[in-house]
Every structure is written in C-alpha cells, then in structure tokens.
User: Fold these one by one.
Assistant:
Number 1:
Amino acid sequence: MCKDITIRWGIIGCGNVTEKKSGPAFNKVPNSKLVAVMRRDKSKLEDYAMRHDVPLTFTDANALIACPEVDAVYIATPPNLHAAYAIAAMKAGKPVYVEKPMATTIEECLEMNRVSMETGIPLYVAYYRRALPSFLKVKSLLDEGTLGKPIEVEVELYQHHEPEKYEGELPWRVIPEVAGAGLFYDLASHTLDYLVSLFGPILKAGGEAINVRQLHRAEERVHGAFEFENGVKGVGRWMFDANYEDFSDKIVITCENGTIEMSTFQFTPIVVKRRGESDQILEYPRPEHVQLNLIDSIVKSLRGEGDCPSTGMSAMNTNWAMWSMVKKFYMDQNK
C-alpha cells in the first residue's frame, strides 16, 4: 500500500473488546477509517454500527472479507476463529490485525504465518502494550543501562473468577476448545509477550497447571518457569481462584543495580529502585483507547511509513511458551 491512501478497516466480531479498547481508535488514527463491521446477531450488529457510525454491516465474515471497500481486517472473535478468518483475509489480499492470543494452538500460528509469508500479506497481533508509553518507558530504562544487566523477572497475577454465576453457560474464556486453554491464555499472554519485547524470545518454558474447584475444564492456577534469549530467567504465578482480598498484578524485574516494579493491567505507578538512591515513581494514566498506539503503528506500516512491533512471528513465541506451561495438564486430561 502507498502513503497517500486511507486504510479502510472492517471488524469481524464487534464484541466488548471493540467498544472502547480498539474500535473507536480506527477512526482516531490518522489515515485510518472504520467502514464495516460483522456480527452474527443482526440486532446487536445494527446497534453497534449506529453507535459507532459505521456505514457497512455484515452478518457473514466472508462477505466482509470480500467487500471491495474494506482494505484491512481486524479479527476480534474468540481465538478458535482467528486462524480461519485470518487465513481467508490474507488469501484475499487483505492485511490482518488479530486479537490475542494469536490462535488456540501453535499449529494454527504456524499456518497463519506460513500464509502470510506465502502471500506477502502482513499479519499483526493485538499485543498493544508493546506500543504504550508506560511500557516503552520501562524498555528505555533497561536499554539505557543505569540499572545494569537484567537478571530475572517475577510475574504474579491473582484474580477471583466466578464461572458458577453464569448459570450453566460458561464464558468462552474458560472453554479450552474456544480459548485455547483458560484465563491463563487470555491474560498471561499480555505479560509474556511484553517480556518477550524486552528480553527476546522465550527459549525454554515449563510449568504446572491445576484446577482446584472443578467448575470447568480449564486450568485455574499456573506456576511457570521460563528463560529468554538474553539469558534472563523468569517465574510466574497465575491464580484465577484467589480470594478477592488477595488480588495481585505485578511484574518485578531484577537487575544488577536495582529493580523495576510495574503492573500488567492496573496502570499503577512504575517504581524504579536504584541501589543507594531514592525510589523513582513514574505515573502514566490509562489511555482512553489502549490499542490506539499499536493501530497507529499498523497503519504507518501499511503505508510504508514505519514498522509495527507486534507481528504474527513475534506473537507465535508467546503461544508456544504458554502451551509449554500447561500442556501436561491438558495431556493428562486426554489420557
């Protein structure tokens, strides 16, 4: 695509994630316009289109992909549909921006990247923390070297989730066939992908997953260990059956001369602790549309004006690392 065009976007799956995080951003980024949306439920589709002033509506994803007025496709469905729609769009010659996790399996990720390379059509993934100012600030702190060499990273996410309140209809995020695994895939993917952006690909990963309450078949707790290309070692604890009062969302990066503490989801202040100095507190407000910066980088990439930091190739490593941590849990289920 050339620099003098506006990228016209179509969204497949206009659910909650598109209401504020992403959808409005397509019209706020320069040289970008949201022109079409697809949802199977026609009444919800028409309501979304009216509220967001979208001119074209479709109840069939393939019809949106084929629409000549759509230049690029954003896929915001549950993960079990990512690969099929992404591949169809790329084969139709249309760049794809797909929600995270990239797909349900590493095999699907491999096929998506194969089609991208075969067709020459770009594939991007919605790991938007790679483009947010607060997360970029931490990267710059590490790159400037005053904290010394990074040594290890510790991740902790404790949440309380109550699938028993869904009256027999479980949310898709805890249905492995739809989500790829459970809430671990939905939430840990953000943290792990961001750490990959700091330290390089994860080369080794393993872990243990358990389901204590047996309210669904997905994992509720994961303890993982992993190692990055640059030698940094990591440990992670994810718990989705924690008590409300035990909520935790933190990343602690330990370097030779200090630490950086931050959160993945809460946008709490970044705390930089340098040996022998007072703590440095860095505050960044939560953006109105958290995906706007990444979408802007995609539009610039498509127009030949820059690069996007989150692609199908980078995102595939995150899928591999997560599966490495939970695969024994799922393989044991299938014995």
Note: DSSP finds eleven helices and 14 strands in the chain.
Number 2:
Amino acid sequence: MLEIRPNCENCNKPLHANSTEAMICSYECTYCVSCVNEVLHNVCPNCGGGFEKRPIRPQSGLLKNPASSTPVLKPVDLASFEPLMETNKNIAPNKR
C-alpha cells in the first residue's frame, strides 16, 4: 500500500493525496513534477530510477487507508547528485 507522502522531498511543496503534481519512483520517493523535470531530470537521487505520476487513491479508499501525514524532507545535494544524474538523464528508466 502506498504511503502517499504529503510533500515534495526536495522543495517541501505540499502534495495532497489528490495532487496531480506528485511523482514517485519505484521506492516511493516523492517529488513534485517541477523538481522531477527541472532539478532531477527524471533521475531519482536515491535509487537512480525514473519517476511516474503517483496514482490518486479514491476518497473511499482514503477512509480505509489514509495518506501519510509525516513529511519527508531530504533536499537534494546537487553536487553529489550530479554524477548520477549526468550518467542517467539521457537513458530511459527502463534501460538503466
């Protein structure tokens, strides 16, 4: 079951459960679409994978399995991330 984290891990933008701007990697690292496109270039700084739009859980499902209220904030250290990003940004996630 997805946690549905409440914020972008990089810029701390709120990403409510029904946000269409939330992007996740296969480990559920959560970023806003702006950070994914403009900062991370579709490379997860934690696992090197790509991102997909986070699914939206229906309201009835949120009653049974609520979204997380615990923020995760780990701003990306661009200097240490750059080698991983440069290696992977031009490779499709399914080819990494």
Note: The chain has a mean pLDDT of 97.
Number 3:
Amino acid sequence: MIIYLLRHGTTIYNLEKRYQGQRDIPLSEDGKAQIRQADFSAEEVYVSPLIRTQQTAHLLFPNAKQIVVEDLKEMNFGSFEGRNYIEMEHDPDYLAWVEANCETACPDGERKDQFCDRTCAAFSRLVDESLQKGKKQLVIVAHGGTQMAVMERFAIPHYAYYHWCAPNAGGYKLDASHWAQEQHLTLLETVQYSKGKMV
C-alpha cells in the first residue's frame, strides 16, 4: 500500500509565523491559488477537523470523499496560539518552553509527547484498517506537526522530529509493505503540490 502524508496549504498565520495549533484558520487566498491538483486521484482523503486541511484536500482531490479524523489535528499550543515568537520574546512561559526544547506542556495546551502519541495512534489505526480492507492507497491531508510526529516514529530512513516538516502543500509518499511485520514505512519520495514557492 502507498501512503501520501500531506500538509495543508498556506494560511495567513503561516506567513506571519504565528502558532496556529488548533485554531481553525482557513487558507489564505494566495494559499488557495498556489495549490495545484494532485497528479494522482483519490476516492477518499482523510483530513483533520480543521478547515485548512479540508480546503487543501478539496483543491488537491476535487472529487474525493473527505473523512474527518479528530486526532489528526495539530498540536494544541494553548496560550501561544495566535502569537509569534517576536510577540512572545519577553513572555516567561514561552521562554521556559523554548529553553526546554519545546518538550514541556504549553500553558493550557499539550506536551509534545502527548501530541505525538495522539496523532501516531490515529495514523496507525488508519494504516491498519486500510491494510485489512486491502486498499492500495491511503491519502491523509493534515498538519506539519502530524507529519513530524508520524515520520519521526515510523519512517525509514530515521530522522528527528523537526527534519520532517514539509512545506505547505507538500509531504511524503511512503511504502507500507513492512508495516504489518515491522511497524515502519519506507520513504519513496517527497512531493509538492504548489505552483510556486510555499512557506
């Protein structure tokens, strides 16, 4: 089975370097215009509950049925959401979080390990169900954090978390041939579905 793990297109928050997290921010007009239809078709696309993934999936796969998976949504950055690092350069909570390599809990939000466990469990269920049904393809449009969590845990070759954040409207094509036995995915190629440079 082939898996496509894709990131949503560009939003205003992406351009302004704001923590987006679970805020339901739509694609910007330019972000919509930059996405090109995918070079393969999909009958079903799994998306998060956040509109930016659903808008992206519609532009990539206009005729596909979208299936919302709650736990694919981005990390909850709590009180950091809606702000960027410049606005928080004197915020003691933010400085402490950065000092801890962003591993501690965001105020009123998630810890990175909690987020990774949540998204990886949701992803694993989708892979297992798709393989059990004999599907040849699994397409997911989610978030940068979702990609990083899944790829760090399951991808071969192995790289650390932050290596795996693809550009907007970009992502990974993966081979699940060894999933059932070894719980890993082989990276086949990176993919990009934008007409120009994305953030």
Note: The helical segments are 12-15, 29-34, 51-60, 92-99, 112-132, 144-154, 179-182.
Number 4:
Amino acid sequence: MDKEDGIYVTLAETNFYPHGVQNLVIWGRSQGFAVLDVISEDGEVLHKLERAPEQNEVQCELDWDRRFDHMQQHTGQYLLSALR
C-alpha cells in the first residue's frame, strides 16, 4: 500500500515489532533491500520498505550483529540502572 511517506506491506507472519527494532532488519536475502520502519495501524503490522517487492512471497531476515549489539546494550542499561 502506498502512503504519503512510502510503501508499506503486510505479511502473513512477521518477527518484527512495531516501532521495535527499526533499521535492524533486512528484507529478504534475494531482494536485498531494507525495511525502514514497522508500525501498527488498525490492528495490522505494516512494514515500510525501501521499494516495492517484485514478488508476493518474501523472506525476512534480522541484521543479527546489530540486533545482538542492541540486546547487550539494553541488558547493560538495566544493570546500570539497578545500581543506582
């Protein structure tokens, strides 16, 4: 679906949380373009894409190195906050 700020798609299943790990994901190995944002609208999860996919069936893949880095930072922040 085209919106004012870009192209959005819905998926039958997703591992991405709305406003969760934006810019930490890559949209399909074969397509090789980024998911720019993930939002929730009217009960649906919408994925903002760099460009429209050419196929109806796609694979999604996390940028694991960045995701793991953020997980570690998140845990570290909890530990630091607990020391106060």
Note: The chain has one domain: 2-82.
